[in-house]
Structure formats: structure tokens, C-alpha cells
Amino acid sequence: MAVKITTFPVGLYQCNCSIIFCDETLEAIVIDPGSEPEIILKKISDQGLKVKYLLHTHAHLDHFSATAAVQSKCQAAAVLHKEDMFLYNQHEAQSMMLGLPQTTITEIDQFLEDEQIFNFGKGEIKSIFTPGHTPGSSSFSLELDNELWLFSGDTLFNGGIGRTDFPGGDSNLIVKSIKNRLYTLDGDCQVIPGHGPNTLIGKEKRSNPFVRA
């Protein structure tokens, strides 16, 4: 499959933004356009990409503050789980709480469903509903050259899991999501989390101090 992944940190909280594209058709998906839209748009422009979807793992501001600016240039559909709309609509309060600049938001074009498939050129990516960090937290899985890749947002990190002390967080639910939805994936699955370095599902099952298999 002619699919490429580019991941880079943006913003004060260094959210991992990922651009995934088919290098034959140049159709693309952006996951978590969290901040610094000029950087995201330059990477899109440099490759000549046509972005179809802006997918969000959850609605904390550091994961969507560049969405409106990127969408205005790309005309891509903004997608978020409906259970996180209350957070999305509280973007002004989030700005104050997180110490981030106020941002303009755009309409959410489509509500994310569990195991929904998003096609881009010859590639496809699937959603996995993983609530706990927020009520609508979701991950995304992608098969690439016989390898599985997971974009876990702030649900699962390298050696950690997402906080649950923010509004809507649920410590029991995030453990269930990780054990029942993510740890059932192949141990060699490459994980790109919402912040920090990559990891492997197998490594987290063995050594994550918060959730062991």
C-alpha cells in the first residue's frame, strides 16, 4: 500500500499531529491538528496533498485548536465523537484552564462512530472507541505494509495513560478501553500517542505501570 505517515509535535503541549496520505492519489487525513496551523498547512502544501478528513482523538483544546484554520484552507470534513462535543464547545474555558490562546472553532461535520472506516486514496483507517480520558476519546488503527499502526490520542502513552481528573474523565473506563480494545491488538502494533515517543502494544502490556495485561 502506497501510504505514508508524517507525525510531528505542535503547540505548547507538543501534541503529536499526524498527516497520513496515499502517495499515488495524494488524498490525506490529518489526525489531531492541535496547534500551529501554519506548520500543518506547509507540510500539506509541500506534498501537494488533498485532505479529506480532520480526525480528532478527543476534544481537549491542544488537540483541535488548529482545526478551523486548517479546514478553511483544505475544505476537509472535521470529525469528532459526539460525546466530546461538550468539551469542544467549552473551548474558551479550556483556553483559560490550559493557558492557551483563545481560538476560533469550526462546525463539526461528522460525528465519529466506533469502527468507522475512513478512506483516502488507496488507504483506509478505522476508528476504535476508547473512552476514559474523555467520554468520546477514540483511537485510530491503520494497516501499512503488513504492520498495524495505532494513533492512541491521550488514552495510551509510552509508559503511561491519559489523565482522568479533567471534566468527563473516568479512571475505570480508561482501563477497560485499554485492556479490551487496545491490548487485544497485535503486540507488534506501533503506537503513536497523543504526546511523547512511540511505543508498541506488546511493550505496554508487559511494562505499563498503570495498566498491565
Structure description:
- The structure is a single chain.
- The chain has helices spanning 37-47, 67-74, 85-88, 91-98, 171-182, 201-207, and strands at 3-10, 15-22, 27-31, 50-55, 77-80, 110-111, 117-120, 123-129, 138-144, 147-153, 156-157, 160-161, 190-193, 199-200.
- The protein is 23% helix and 32% strand.
- The strands form three sheets. The chain has a six-stranded mixed beta sheet.
- By secondary structure, the chain is of the alpha/beta class.
- It starts with a strand and ends in a 6-residue tail after the last helix.
- The chain has one domain (3-207): Ribonuclease Z/Hydroxyacylglutathione hydrolase-like (Metallo-beta-lactamase, Chain A, 4-Layer Sandwich).
Describe the protein's topology.
Blueprint: E1 3-10, E2 15-22, E3 27-31, H1 37-47, E4 50-55, H2 67-74, E5 77-80, H3 85-88, H4 91-98, E6 110-111, E7 117-120, E8 123-129, E9 138-144, E10 147-153, E11 156-157, E12 160-161, H5 171-182, E13 190-193, E14 199-200, H6 201-207
Parallel strand pairs: 3-4, 4-5, 5-6, 10-13
Antiparallel strand pairs: 1-2, 2-3, 7-8, 8-9, 9-10, 11-12, 13-14
Helix pairs in contact: 1-2
Task: Briefly summarize what is shown.
The protein is built from six helices and 14 strands.
Order of helices and strands: EEEHEHEHHEEEEEEEHEEH
- Termini Cα gap: 31 Å
The outline comes out as globular
How would you sum up the major sheet?
Answer: 6 strands, mixed
**Structural class, please?**
alpha/beta
According to CATH, the homologous superfamily is Ribonuclease Z/Hydroxyacylglutathione hydrolase-like
- As for the number of domains, it is 1
Radius of gyration: 16 Å
Which percent band covers the strand fraction?
25-35%
